[in-house]
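ingest -> fold -> write
write: protein_1
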Amino acid sequence: MKKLLALLLCVMMLVPMAAMADDGRIHITYSFWGNQTEAEGVQAALDEFNASQNRIFVEPMQIPNEEYTETLVNYAIAGQLPDCGMVNENAVLYFARNGVMADVSDMYVGEALQPMDCITFRDGGTPVGYSSCNEILVLYYNKDMFDAAGIPYPSATEPYTWEEFLEVSRQLTFDKNGKHPGEEGFDPNNIVQYGCFVNNWTWQMEVWALSNGGAWFSEDGTQVLINSPEAIESIQMVADLALVHHVAPLNVIPEDNGVGIGIGSGTVAMTTDGTWRLGTDFPNLDINYGIAPLPVMKEQVTLCTSGLTGVFNGPNQAAAYEFVKWYTREESNWNSLILTGIWMPKSEYYYTTEDGINAWLGNEAYPFKDMEAGRAVLVDYTMNYAKPACWYYTPNTQITTNEILFTALQSVWSGERTAEDVINEIYPELCDAIVID
């Protein structure tokens, strides 16, 4: 990655100045990831911007999330880096330190609505960018499966303890003969319905370390803390849902698709995942679902995150800056991304005032119709318990979380090794990777 970025910067120095297209506009490209539903929302926003003025025309560039950062670097080497776009959270600080990102630190100066502090990327305490929106991790559940089992729905205000979550998951898990885990004759090799699926996509695992009283990194982003007993235990507790308790499906090679693997499969009653699923997945799933806070190991917490929409250094920087400033205002994506449930607002106004809250949660177009639960989970939970994911303040998480941990933890998910053995083995490598270049 370092060699690629060095070459990237050399190539960027050779890019010619921006030129007008035949239609008299400056044409710029905006890169993003997401499924077809998200792509339609992005295109709607771009269409609105393109129609609002006659100087700049924005063209979309859709890239799969799993390949996003590597693809951007490869495009840069080929002289085809987009002018602006989303940046995977784990690569923001790395790109910023290597001169790929243009300075947008003053983008919201003088604006009436300011981004929430928890979605501000900081390098040594200095803001270097802002997420496009806010997203948090929540618990989704299938109401019909709870009804069939005669179990009350998870509370929107009082989260399960981990022990309660495990017990309810047992009651919702049964094999082909209707036996539950722990009952005599239960067959773990022929499970018909699982009680839960905790998304083990690597970055989503950090929340459990925090909930268990530990952390992955220090708050200043300079130390690796994932080898603490609390952090190690949290990983093993999630793995044991499948390996020991048999209440969750085995997921050895994680995908960024918790809802799809979980309740979207039709065989799982509860799933942890991000709030973007409200707009990207559930409108296409025939599921009577609800939302609740995440289960609690020791402390109530959720992670907030979202990709940064930034400007890349290049010949169209001024035009890209103008578009990004427009695009990252809530009103510019209100109908296409916020009211569709794909994005949550990023400004505190929409969480701390009645008018702001009602503007999205109370809008008839919003996909989640339970206003009471929505307010408790999407608003109050965000304001009281959301913490920034590690990449907002920790360098090189594209290596520590996406490469080292992703690969190493697969042997934990499969049951071949314990979390303690794996984390202690890779700890020196993680410490080396976090070192500021």
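write: protein_2
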Amino acid sequence: MSSPLLSIENLHVSAGDTKIIKGMALTLNAGEIHALMGPNGSGKSTLANVLLGHPDYQVTQGTIRYKGEDISDWTADERGRAGMFLGFQYPEEIPGVTVVNFLRAALSNRTGTEYTVLELRLKVMDAMKELGLDGSFADRYLNEGFSGGERKRNEILQLAVLEPELAILDETDSGLDIDALRTVAEGVKKVATDERGFLIITHYQRMLDYITPDVVHIFMDGNIIETGGPDLAVKIEEQGYDDYRVEAPAT
């Protein structure tokens, strides 16, 4: 039996003296889509950054395994080359670097193969056609002047070109109108395969109206407190998170 794509056990994470993640566990297999839902400040984005090796956070206890290997000591570059991908809540703009040149550098690092500009352009154009993106998109500077929807579509294009095995999407639905949300969701579905796993981090159920997750986790105060199927996301949409909040004891 093959190892899970992602296995997190008893994970504790701090930033300085502040404890953020407090003993969480999660197992995600290839071919699965998991949704991690929780309110602001619960630690969801911290988890996304920790999984990709952000140096500002310290794993103080527990393990993170990717395809069976403990990656605690891996750098962000090593995790990316191994097939892990993070879609940011607020993708940065990089003036002077075109989308196609960014993807050429990223794919070369990912695969160890040096692609010519022509080879990469053909690959990008095929992916853009599949995702319904205008061809001129490739020659624009990365995220410069992009709308929120265009920034998120660009990340789906990166998914299609880089072909990571584990994609972590941190609040991809943030700031999107309904049309952009539908386009991004359709793009995610097009790049999903039986060999690829997704962890979709979100506040709301609206992204999950278009992408049906296999598993839904409720994340509060640095830990997963309930796990279920798609109906759990519907419950959160209808009732909110109040039922899961733990009031501080009276002093």
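write: annotation protein_2
The longest strand covers residues 18-28.
The two ends are 51 Å apart (CA to CA).
pipeline exit 0
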